[in-house]
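User: Sequence in, structure out. Go.
Assistant: Echoing your sequence, followed by the structure tokens.
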Amino acid sequence: MTTFVSMDNDNIIRTLGLMTISAIGQGSAIGKDLIIADTEDGNDVLDTEEVRPLVKSEHPYKLEAALCLVCKGGSMKVRINLIEYSIASNDLMVTMPGEIVQCLEISPDCRLTLIGFSDKYYYPITSGEQLNTMSSFFAQRPVNHLDDEKVSDLLSIIGIMRRRLSNPATREKELIIKGYINALIIEAYELISDILTNTPKINRTRGEIIYSDFMSLLQRHYTSERSVTFYASKLCISPKYLSQTIIEQSGKPATEWIKEYVLLEAKALLGTHRYSVQEISDRLNFANQSFFGTWFKK
């Protein structure tokens, strides 16, 4: 079951399963592996107690689904994988499963359309190469500005999906949704191609390249690797040089970035109540439960 994970004021991670909100908002189509919502719906599902943490929480949450958010007006600030982004009208935000997102600010006039779906809806129709291309691009650029035509196309596809799912007479809803998600994936490929074609190449410094590559590696390996030596080896540089470079580029040492990622992952797993402490310790590659407990309390 798809789950969005959010943190409350007491630093306790709590889960938000799509099944628990499946009956909210007659204007929104919601299932166990899919959520489609809009702030302009008459029954605003995005402003309910259950769903508000998805887009209005002041605390980080961990996604276990792909999330696509279109801003139609107003503005918001988010932190994705500990990096801050500003979102305004005609901006598209795309995050993939496993990413950590936090809403920092949201304006009162912010208008959003949101679709979230589990891998059930894209793995059967997406090749490994396609998935890797999208994951790599949106990991580097999760927020992109679109022209009016592209926003209109995206909203049209999502709007059709909502209407088809909301119609009790619609048969084969799962197959229909997979078809429309395939259309969204094609739109995403066109978007990526247009951006890469029209974006002038910028000569990055060696430090910027190392920082970017380190963050990409960290997002892939933080659940199993906590050693600066590991990441330095992958980048073919010394641990000392990596540490110095990351401090220069981000103001924080590499060890702190690693710790923040691991801590959020551990809290998220604890909050799901689906795993024992021993199982979480094993998933995060700790030597034993005792060491995990000591490290987690630091």
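User: And one key feature?
Assistant: The first strand starts at residue 3 and ends at 7.
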